[in-house]
Amino acid sequence: MPPRLEQSSIMVQSLNGLGVAAILLFSSGFGALASPVAPRQIGAVGTLHPIASSGKCVDVRTSVFENGTVVQIFDCNDSDAQNWRIQRGVAGPIEVEGTGFCLDAGSSPALGVGMKIWQCIDNLPAQQWLYNNDNQIILANQDTNFCLDLTDGNLANTNQLQIWECATGNENQVWLEGPPGNDDPTPPPPTSRPLHPNANGDKCMDVEGSVFANGTPVQIFDCNGSSAQQWTLTDGNTKVQVAGMNFCLDATSANPANGVGMKIWECFDGLAAQSWTYTDSHHLQLQSSPKCVDLTNGDITNGNQLQVFDCFEGNDNQIWN
C-alpha cells in the first residue's frame, strides 16, 4: 500500500465555531497517521444492496477492519461487515458502523480503482460521498464524476467494487438501503389487518372488485370485512401482502413518479416496487425512494385509486392506521 501522505502537514478544522482542532499528520516515508478522527454520528445504519439483488450486500472482506481491506459484494449474512452508516443528500463519510473505518476511493481516484476501507479522517476527499435521489453513491468534493459501481455487473461473491463514471440508468450504480444485520434475523410474524386512511376509520384500502390478479387497482372503499381489505405487514421494513394470497401492494418501479396508481402484483422477494417501510408515523414508504402510499387528492369516495407521492410528515393523505 503506498503512503497516504508524502510529507508532513497540519490540517486545521473549525469545530462549529466553538474552537479549533489541529490534527498533525506525520510522514517520514511511511505515511503514518498520528491520530484518525472519528466520523460524526449522522445518518442511518443499514445494509446496501445492488438493485439487481436484495440478497447481496456491500461487504468488508472477511470482516477484517483494517486499512486497505477490500470492499466487495457478498451474500447478505447479518454480519457487522455489512452495516454502513450513510446519510442521503449530504456529502459525508460512509462508515462501517462502530468501527472507525470508512469507504475509501484512494488518494488518486480513477476509472476502475477498487474500493477499500480506511481509517475515517474528517473531510478526507477520498471518503466524501453523496447518496442522491437516484440511489447513486457519488464521490463528492472532487473534480471527478465517479460513482460506486458493481464491477462488470458481477454479483459473484468477493467481486471487489470499484468507482466508474456516473451514468444515469446504469443499474451497476444503483444502491438500495436495507435493514441492518443483527444476531437474530428472524422477523416478527406479520399480522393481518385492514388499513384505514387517517381521515376516516370507516374507509379501507381495498383490492378493486376483489379481483386477485396482476394489475388490479388498489382503491379506497367502505370497510366491509372482505378478504380484499385484509393485509399482512409488519412494523419497519415489510411487504404489504393481501392476507393469505401471493399478491402484494406494488408501486410499479423502485422510484416511481408522483401520481403512479397503486395496484397488486404477484409477490417477489426483494422486488423494490414491493419493498415498503411502515414507519412509526404510520406512513407506508418505499425503501428505495422517498415516496409514500397516498390517498389521491384526499378523496375518500369509493373507487378512488390510491397513488404514490412524495412523502411529507403530517400529511393525513399518507397516514394509514
TrEMBL record:
Domain Ricin B lectin positions: 46-178, 189-321
Superkingdom as given in the UniProt entry: Eukaryota
GO MF term (any one): carbohydrate binding
Keyword set includes Transport: no
The keyword Magnesium is assigned to this record: no
Region (Disordered): 172-200
Coiled-coil intervals, chain numbering: none
Keyword tags: Disulfide bond, Lectin
CDD domains in the cross-refs: beta-trefoil_Ricin-like
GO biological process, one term: protein O-linked glycosylation
One Pfam entry name: Ricin_B_lectin
Protein name per the record: CAZyme family CBM13
